[in-house]
TrEMBL record:
Pfam families, per database record: TetR_N (PF00440)
The keyword Membrane belongs to this UniProt entry's keyword annotation: no
Keyword Transferase attached: no
Protein name: TetR/AcrR family transcriptional regulator
Domain HTH tetR-type: 1-55
InterPro entries associated with the record: Homeodomain-like_sf, HTH-type_TetR-like_transc_reg, HTH_TetR, Tet_transcr_reg_TetR-rel_C_sf
UniProt KW keywords: DNA-binding
UniProt cross-references to Gene3D superfamilies, sorted A to Z: Tetracycline Repressor, domain 2 (1.10.357.10)
DNA-binding region: 18-37
């Protein structure tokens, strides 16, 4: 089913991606597609999974400053910068996935991993703050919708977005 979904995205774009179309292209029943992915957002997050695994390996096990070996504050900066690049690279699919329901972004596996990782680093860097709240607040500016708005509507570059995140971190770290 993922191969069929990837073909649809490659030929018709992510907006044409629908579970019933994927099921038909894969030669399975629509119910099978819904049981496997739940909804369109689940399908898109599954398509993003390979790149996501590489990204997670980089911040969990890779070299510093993104990976272990740097201070928590350095890792937070590196993580947020890398996340901006990750979102920009797959912006179209993330826009569809994150806007499929009001909570799709927050229920996705990647967001939960990002939140846990960031909260852990924040707990180390600033033990006197609520790391879970601050992690959610720092992840808000790297949503696909806000990054899309900043890049497309405001004409900003990712360097400006990263600089803005650095400004937020200086206020909080």
């Amino acid at each position: 089913m993922l191969d069929a979904a990837a073909r649809i995205v490659a030929t018709e774009g992510v907006k044409a991606l629908a579970l019933d179309e994927v099921a038909r292209a894969a030669g399975v029943g629509t119910g099978t597609a819904y049981r496997r992915f739940g909804d369109r957002a689940g399908l898109i997050f599954a398509l993003l999974d390979e790149e996501e695994a590489s990204f997670q390996a980089a911040f969990l096990q890779g070299p510093p400053p993104l990976g272990p070996g740097a201070s928590a504050a350095e890792r937070i900066h590196a993580f947020l910068h890398a996340l901006v690049d990750r979102v920009e690279a797959q912006l179209e699919m993330l826009l569809v996935a994150e806007t499929s329901s009001p909570v799709a972004r927050y229920r996705s596996g990647p967001y939960m991993v990002y939140h846990t990782h960031l909260a852990s680093l924040l707990g180390e860097a600033r033990p006197n703050v609520d790391p879970h709240y601050v992690a959610a607040a720092l992840l808000a500016p790297v949503s696909a919708t806000l990054i899309s708005y900043q890049l497309r509507e405001r004409g900003l570059g990712t360097d400006v977005l990263k600089s803005g995140l650095d400004d937020l971190l200086r206020l909080n770290l």
